[in-house]
Amino acid sequence: MSMISRDVIAAENAKREGALKSDYAHLGEQLARRGIDIDAVKRKVAAYAVAVPSWGVGTGGTRFARFPGAGEPRNIFDKLEDCAVIHELTRATPTVSLHIPWDKVADLGALKEMGAGLGLGFDAMNSNTFSDAPGQEHSYKYGSLSHADAATRQQAVEHNIECIEIGRKLGSKALTVWIGDGTNFPGQADFTRSFERYLDAMKAIYQNLPDDWRIFSEHKMYEPAFYSTVVQDWGTNYLIARELGDKAYCLVDLGHHAPNVNIEMIVARLIQFGKLGGFHFNDSKYGDDDLDTGSIDPYRLFLVFNELVNAEERKAEGFAPAHMLDQSHNVTDPIESLIRSATEVCRAYAQGLIVERAALAGYQDDNDALMASETLKTAFRTDVEPILAMARQEAGGAIDPVATYRAAGYRTKVANERPAIAGGGGGIV
Amino acid sequence: MSMISRDVIAAENAKREGALKSDYAHLGEQLARRGIDIDAVKRKVAAYAVAVPSWGVGTGGTRFARFPGAGEPRNIFDKLEDCAVIHELTRATPTVSLHIPWDKVADLGALKEMGAGLGLGFDAMNSNTFSDAPGQEHSYKYGSLSHADAATRQQAVEHNIECIEIGRKLGSKALTVWIGDGTNFPGQADFTRSFERYLDAMKAIYQNLPDDWRIFSEHKMYEPAFYSTVVQDWGTNYLIARELGDKAYCLVDLGHHAPNVNIEMIVARLIQFGKLGGFHFNDSKYGDDDLDTGSIDPYRLFLVFNELVNAEERKAEGFAPAHMLDQSHNVTDPIESLIRSATEVCRAYAQGLIVERAALAGYQDDNDALMASETLKTAFRTDVEPILAMARQEAGGAIDPVATYRAAGYRTKVANERPAIAGGGGGIV
Amino acid sequence: MSMISRDVIAAENAKREGALKSDYAHLGEQLARRGIDIDAVKRKVAAYAVAVPSWGVGTGGTRFARFPGAGEPRNIFDKLEDCAVIHELTRATPTVSLHIPWDKVADLGALKEMGAGLGLGFDAMNSNTFSDAPGQEHSYKYGSLSHADAATRQQAVEHNIECIEIGRKLGSKALTVWIGDGTNFPGQADFTRSFERYLDAMKAIYQNLPDDWRIFSEHKMYEPAFYSTVVQDWGTNYLIARELGDKAYCLVDLGHHAPNVNIEMIVARLIQFGKLGGFHFNDSKYGDDDLDTGSIDPYRLFLVFNELVNAEERKAEGFAPAHMLDQSHNVTDPIESLIRSATEVCRAYAQGLIVERAALAGYQDDNDALMASETLKTAFRTDVEPILAMARQEAGGAIDPVATYRAAGYRTKVANERPAIAGGGGGIV
Amino acid sequence: MSMISRDVIAAENAKREGALKSDYAHLGEQLARRGIDIDAVKRKVAAYAVAVPSWGVGTGGTRFARFPGAGEPRNIFDKLEDCAVIHELTRATPTVSLHIPWDKVADLGALKEMGAGLGLGFDAMNSNTFSDAPGQEHSYKYGSLSHADAATRQQAVEHNIECIEIGRKLGSKALTVWIGDGTNFPGQADFTRSFERYLDAMKAIYQNLPDDWRIFSEHKMYEPAFYSTVVQDWGTNYLIARELGDKAYCLVDLGHHAPNVNIEMIVARLIQFGKLGGFHFNDSKYGDDDLDTGSIDPYRLFLVFNELVNAEERKAEGFAPAHMLDQSHNVTDPIESLIRSATEVCRAYAQGLIVERAALAGYQDDNDALMASETLKTAFRTDVEPILAMARQEAGGAIDPVATYRAAGYRTKVANERPAIAGGGGGIV
């Protein structure tokens, strides 16, 4: 099943093929001067994949308002179709990450089958204990896995176990646990007792984790809690992963840190101590802005990938991070934002691959700070778009995915099929 | 009409009267040593007032979820009753600030009358062009007063004029304009053209402002826009007030600044240049957290009031700022949070009043940094609660307003009268 | 030997004794209402001690300039005398923390003896590998314990071992290691290799640590390195302490964190995992401003002490943190700043002691966020100065230490004895 | 006179000429597809110039230490030679900005002549009232232009007037005033009175400004003052420029803002209101880190230039900003850092020039946030190095300036001529 007509892709590619060939050839010449084989880079890029979040294909919002677009997906089946569009055009997003209970369905077999038909697999499962589902017995208003009340914690544990069960049936191999637990006022909770309760609850979940699964805990500085957050930073996150065991890893969301923090260094530390589980990619300027990956500080994204490629090339022990986008698309067509974000992640990976690492190590050992930093800048400055485009085209995707998406008229089509949704603000100010 | 039984207040006060008298007497003795007349301070505190936001009596939330409490107000009439509770206990919140269209009603006369019956007046009107109201012709998804489309701007202008009209009928004397206009991505809008459009639209509103009204523009660094915001800081806000004219002033929300910014200095600058319009009080640790005033950094609140009292005492020209609470109560009973926040504002004011200003000026002129700063700290360290409590009691309020509120059983009463609201997350992530 | 005349202290105290007695009595009455015995609190406060940094008694500066004051100490002997002044007046600073090589002397016996004569002991030793000492063989321009060159690392290791040796002779029991190692540009160093080298070097130092000593590693977000810092946060610091062994602990400097970070939570985590070694107290608004403790955000200081008292009262395993001031006094008389900072630390401790912990725990278990946070605020709002002053007076110190210091004319005396130092900027911009 | 042998430049260029031709041709082809004439861009880049700060050619430091390099310039004559090297290789830095009294000499005629001989002119003069010069009558410890004492203010005013006099003789046309005035503690100074004194002092300087000169005031959030700074942000800076008159403008240093602040928006506002005077370019991650321009966040630099090119192309009224580098080179050869920083500024300018502005405006008007932001990203992603290199080569500079500088052996030469300087820490902690 194909969501975007092969003919449209072919027609759009035909317009750009000539320029791409010329650009690819010239870039190949440039890279050859540096001793880099462009085809080898292209092959690695082609093999690279990043998961798409099911919730990302719907229009996001803020506490002030949400402004839906046309053709909003109504359920996980609609979402899968939207995700398929992204993968067909980029050839970089073969898996989808689900959020339970948002994506819960009665017939998991049908869901799995639909995914298979669209060429999509299922990435890490995401539990949700940061909002109350209709009819839920115990409220998460005051926390979930760290709640003062044992019954509420138990409910949250069971929800996570259910997510594992659903994931098993869909072929997922990981559970991502992000909780909003924390406080809004000094004194509201005891930091130590809260964290003890959290650890106990996570251990209960961990005991239900299949042997071939991993569990990812995700830290976040603040929001929805505005004074303290139970899993507030990578230090606490590392302690969690260590306390739980070998299948427990830390997940890094790029937008979940304090201002000015050196995130690539955190990535390096987690790799060094064997606990980097994966990423939620996005970009941000202020808080957890959840903007399109690479849209605010592309160099920072590159520096993260520089660490990843470094680890990959030195074959760091236990290094196998999961890559996922996690964004909120408030003012763009979510499919377009995910397309370009997937592309940006590929771009940063390609730029990381063309860093001249032997030269870099030499400059580092010589304390030649200028040439060391220029070595990274040179890789970053290189316009690797021809590599990305060639890899996409060769895999059946689009040279220019956004233009092709627009040419295909997908949004108009679903806008006709799916009912319009009224926007509005929830009075949440 | 009284929301809280006078008997309950009397009974609760009776329990605390003895201690209060003793504490007040001893504090009077301490202040007398510094040459300060406690009764004079008390009289000023008693005359102080801060407005309560109508939206503040409902439970707030985040983009992730909202967890309503029991007895949520259903409309502006319920909200007025809740506001009356706050004023009856604190005697510090005689006015309510409305938000349109949230508080729009067919019969404004009835609303005004109800307010009068409850002893409540109406403070600044707040327009809303940061979310789409049902049935609205033009969407504010891409802005309102600065929107690229003239018809959308016109709609936003008319909405503000309507707010003025409503306010006139209710006895309000000011319009507060906060817009969410801005962008999520570099390039999304042209900063200069956007601001020109904003200024044009504000001028159109200004032309409709009655002679005895003021218009307050409110700056905010970010959220809901995550890359740029049209009215992003006090510098832009000052330019707006100057461009508009003598009735235009800047409103300062304590949570709308960049990390580490010295807010009290901004307050001083706006006073010096005659453009401080007023405040939205709250507290925050990370972003626009909208926490209870004084709950995170009480010394910062004091330093703001130190500037206000300084301006008041030197009779700074044109100094007459409006004071309003603006908070989001996500995990507390909103009435309780507003009670203590009103109290905190009074506390900071009282602490500002007992700063020994002549001594302070002397230390400043002598560059005696240590004694100058200790002079402020001494005022801040003084526990002025007896002054606040005595002022409340003498005005018919409660010595301990939260305890009295709980004793009165108001929340239970309205929980029985008002239907429960289901919580939940909007899928806005 | 006494630096401040007992007569001056007695005369100054005599002026304030009456008021103090009255205030202490009334505070005792207030605390008794809450079930708190003021004398018990006073006894704990009297037993509390914080170390003074030897370098703190000289006027500090910035990279732009340094403006020395009158009577700058010329060497560690002058510094000890200045430190003695602080202790004689506050009775809270019985130990001094040395910095090597700044405080290196040929005759350690004489130094120890002088300390004993002044009633001063020696707290943690501080090594210095963030600047080059005259004649030093290998430069620390590009790092010390993490330097790419083995000989430089070895030199840094040996310097630390020398610090231990000096400390042994003086009766110190701890070594504090703060390094400036890091980079100014992305790529300048490999994060992982740098940290491996650092760990190796620290292990070499650790092997030379006496059995009854502790080693404190200190993290800092940035400065002097402006892109990355080897020991950048508590996460890395914790890893260090864990890798080294049971005698290794983390030191927390209040000014060494990212903006908005919840420091009291870090303190709680380190206590929970048995690795809190101690503190460098100071205050800051922007970066590592090294301002007087409690001068910018006194509530934050209280919240840190709230965690410390909590741990003390629940007898947290292995909890025995070292307390030290670490400040830069650029515009005040350093002795005065240290006097008031020592007092502020005592104040926060006293406020922590009067938190009603059983009630607090109850509110926490009930998710009564408002009353829980008010419980802390009530303790913080209480003016505990009478407790501090009474404890000082009873121990032979001054009721008002700064006023007494000024009355004693110590600064004038040393200004006459010690030659004036020219200020200036180093052209370091 | 030539500091770098023409032969070395020629020989180094010869090695790279072939590749450059090929790259330039291909880039020309790519840009032509977008309707951009590469030669026109190159001509604009060739005409672009940025001033070098005289103090920038010496190794900088921090309050902790300074680690000088080999061949440190001893005086302004040495500095001019170093600056000439930068210009000869980059052809982009034809002027030098002086700092008085650091660069004060008896014979200004000789200085001017030497500059002329090296092909260097003199950019804005910089006064220094943030440190005390030897023998200075009144200390700036507690401020300069805003000092409480009139005589100190007068001294600072006179120093600035002297800077103007020196500048007139050298052919400069602007005075940059950056002061460190501010406070370390709340209460230390009265914000309003301080600012009044500052404005009075600046007016006195302004009266002495020649008709064809401009005066630039520079704001900075903090450092060396750590609680408040008199000229703390662009809002205050704008007020200053407006109060002074038509020859007064605001100078923007990229590192002088609060965390997360949108600097390009400030630039746009100052342009819109006719008060953008110029820039101090550098880069930073935490505070005023003064790192090499473009080394931390190159996209932010591009976004600033996007505003500048936008203003240039729409011929914004009064738009003629001065461009200057202002950095501290602590771990690199300062000449190399200035070379690459000049290059980075040119790069950002070139990238700004190739933004497809008509398309951008169209996307903005259509609220096509994705394509608008991609339009900027496309320009930024384009590797414009061939344009920069070709412009340099054609003007007699080096295709690869840093490699050519190294090949020329200049640092070794001056290391032999100029005495070594011992590093060290000033005990300023």
Structural description of this entry:
The structure is a homotetramer of 429-residue chains. Chain A has a single domain, classed as Alpha-Beta Barrel (TIM Barrel). Chain A contains 15 helices and eleven strands. Chain A has helices at 6-33, 38-47, 76-90, 108-118, 150-170, 191-206, 234-244, 263-272, 298-313, 334-353, 357-365, 369-381, 385-394, 401-408, 410-417, and strands spanning 52-53, 95-97, 121-122, 125-126, 174-177, 182-183, 214-218, 228-229, 248-253, 276-281, 322-325. Chain A has a six-stranded parallel sheet. In chain A, strand 4, helix 5 and strand 5 form a beta-alpha-beta unit. Chain A is globular, with a radius of gyration of 22 Å. Chains in contact: A-B, A-C, A-D, B-C, B-D, C-D. Chains A and C meet through helix 6, strand 8, helix 7, helix 8 and helix 9 of A and helix 6, strand 8, helix 7, helix 8 and helix 9 of C.
The CATH superfamily of chain A turns out to be: Divalent-metal-dependent TIM barrel enzymes
**Which percent band covers the strand fraction of chain A?**
5-15%
Number of discrete helical segments of chain A: 15
What CATH architecture of chain A do you see?
A: Alpha-Beta Barrel
Assembly form of the protein:
homotetramer
Strand order of the largest sheet of chain A: 4-5-7-9-10-11
The CATH topology of chain A is TIM Barrel
What structural category arises from helix and sheet content of chain A?
A: alpha/beta
InterPro entries (chains A, B, C, D): L-rhamnose_isomerase (IPR050337), L_rhamnose_iso (IPR013451), Xyl_isomerase-like_sf (IPR036237)
Organism (chains A, B, C, D): Rhizobium subbaraonis
GO molecular function (chains A, B, C, D): isomerase activity; metal ion binding
Keywords (chains A, B, C, D): Isomerase, Manganese, Metal-binding
